[in-house]
Amino acid sequence: MSATGTALVLRRGRFSALVERRTLVFTAVMLVLLLALGLTALCYGDGWTSPARVFAALSGQRGGPNVMIREWQLPRVLAAVVFGAALGTAGAVFQNVTRNPLGSPDVIGLDAGAYTGALVAITVLSGTPARLTAGSVLGGLVAAALVYLLAMRGGVSGLRLIVIGIAVNAMLTAVNSWIVLRAELEVAIAAVGWSAGSLNGLGWEQVRIPFCVIAVLLAALVTRAPALHQAALGTEVAVGTGVRTESLQVQLVVIGVGCTATVTAAAGPIVFVALAAPQIGRRLARTSGIGLLPAALTGAVLLQSADLIAQLLLSPVSLPVGVVTTAIGGCYLIWLLSKEVRSG
């Protein structure tokens, strides 16, 4: 490792990477914050548990409270971190593709499409976990294809994609309401409750497959990160360095939809994390563009914080985390729109 001005050069064998100091500081701070939030969430269950008891439970000691911490609270904490990182990364992908801070899966209809696919799996295909995941991913991909095809007619641009995505989102929301109204009462109640987006009741059985899918998608995204950074400099620069921009966009959309749909299948549509995390991460890390790592870390912190608030706000009743993220995201969206109007 060597220093060059405001950056550090990390070397190991033939591998080398240039990392800005402020990015390392931001990463360290966010990781410490995540650990603090995670420990607080583990301590807070039916009642307050001391950190010493939490560490004892994590070390494998037996006992009623210890089992609850390991089997119920720990999966929920990890789900908040992993799902938040996945949503933040998906938001960064779509904001890079559209080159617009409003280009996020929940704004341009991909969340609604994933929810449509999940509703079809619940109401028609009996809603097994595998079918729910497949339905969510397929619904998100169909929504993305629809938005992209409609945007191609007048020449694809970030603003056009977003405007068409908002329209598709409205139509899919109406379709989702119709599906719920036509479903049997028990199914409709379950679907409406699940649509709020919640981490309540998640155990290891519910998160194992989503964790594996998200890990594969994020690993695939890491391999495309250099090309994504080149594309962020402009189409001409990207093409000049050998990046096939159209193929790259398709790959990024598939990865982004996969991350969003996997979270939707496991926890329901959790909105606004994908919208806010990339921009907040960019400002906190002070990066010139929308970085994947800042967006992922910020998304994890946002969702973990929102879930902790959801548990504490009306204790002992635990709110769906989507209620909290909607409230926070609404305030953020108003601020973002007012900022865009002033700058325009």
Automatic annotation (TrEMBL):
<keyword id="KW-0472">Membrane</keyword>
<dbReference type="GO" id="GO:0005886">
    <property type="term" value="C:plasma membrane"/>
</dbReference>
<feature type="transmembrane region" description="Helical">
    <location>
        <begin position="132"/>
        <end position="151"/>
    </location>
</feature>
<comment type="similarity">
    <text>Belongs to the binding-protein-dependent transport system permease family. FecCD subfamily.</text>
</comment>
<feature type="transmembrane region" description="Helical">
    <location>
        <begin position="252"/>
        <end position="277"/>
    </location>
</feature>
<feature type="transmembrane region" description="Helical">
    <location>
        <begin position="24"/>
        <end position="42"/>
    </location>
</feature>
<keyword id="KW-0812">Transmembrane</keyword>
<feature type="transmembrane region" description="Helical">
    <location>
        <begin position="107"/>
        <end position="126"/>
    </location>
</feature>
<feature type="transmembrane region" description="Helical">
    <location>
        <begin position="187"/>
        <end position="204"/>
    </location>
</feature>
<feature type="transmembrane region" description="Helical">
    <location>
        <begin position="77"/>
        <end position="95"/>
    </location>
</feature>
<feature type="transmembrane region" description="Helical">
    <location>
        <begin position="289"/>
        <end position="313"/>
    </location>
</feature>
<dbReference type="InterPro" id="IPR000522">
    <property type="entry name" value="ABC_transptr_permease_BtuC"/>
</dbReference>
<feature type="transmembrane region" description="Helical">
    <location>
        <begin position="158"/>
        <end position="181"/>
    </location>
</feature>
<keyword id="KW-1133">Transmembrane helix</keyword>
<feature type="transmembrane region" description="Helical">
    <location>
        <begin position="211"/>
        <end position="232"/>
    </location>
</feature>
<dbReference type="InterPro" id="IPR037294">
    <property type="entry name" value="ABC_BtuC-like"/>
</dbReference>
<keyword id="KW-1003">Cell membrane</keyword>
<feature type="transmembrane region" description="Helical">
    <location>
        <begin position="319"/>
        <end position="338"/>
    </location>
</feature>
<protein>
    <submittedName>
        <fullName>Iron-enterobactin ABC transporter permease</fullName>
    </submittedName>
</protein>
<dbReference type="GO" id="GO:0033214">
    <property type="term" value="P:siderophore-iron import into cell"/>
</dbReference>
<dbReference type="GO" id="GO:0022857">
    <property type="term" value="F:transmembrane transporter activity"/>
</dbReference>
<dbReference type="Pfam" id="PF01032">
    <property type="entry name" value="FecCD"/>
</dbReference>
<keyword id="KW-0813">Transport</keyword>
